[in-house]
């Protein structure tokens, strides 16, 4: 699985990705469920982590780009 845009969120993203891929392969592709309710809380946790850390990541990236 890929890393998160914000390294602080890697663990949360990994848990969500694992949940999502399991749901997708075991339920969605088999036509059992269209809504991924079991991973919804993990997705919200990941979103909140990104919201809390993305500005720092973007500021760091912008600073590096100015040096080029």
From TrEMBL:
<dbReference type="Pfam" id="PF05254">
    <property type="entry name" value="UPF0203"/>
</dbReference>
<dbReference type="GO" id="GO:0005829">
    <property type="term" value="C:cytosol"/>
</dbReference>
<dbReference type="GO" id="GO:0045332">
    <property type="term" value="P:phospholipid translocation"/>
</dbReference>
<protein>
    <recommendedName>
        <fullName>Mitochondrial distribution and morphology protein 35</fullName>
    </recommendedName>
</protein>
<keyword id="KW-1015">Disulfide bond</keyword>
<comment type="similarity">
    <text>Belongs to the TRIAP1/MDM35 family.</text>
</comment>
<dbReference type="InterPro" id="IPR007918">
    <property type="entry name" value="MDM35_apoptosis"/>
</dbReference>
<dbReference type="GO" id="GO:0005758">
    <property type="term" value="C:mitochondrial intermembrane space"/>
</dbReference>
<dbReference type="GO" id="GO:1990050">
    <property type="term" value="F:phosphatidic acid transfer activity"/>
</dbReference>
<dbReference type="GO" id="GO:0005634">
    <property type="term" value="C:nucleus"/>
</dbReference>
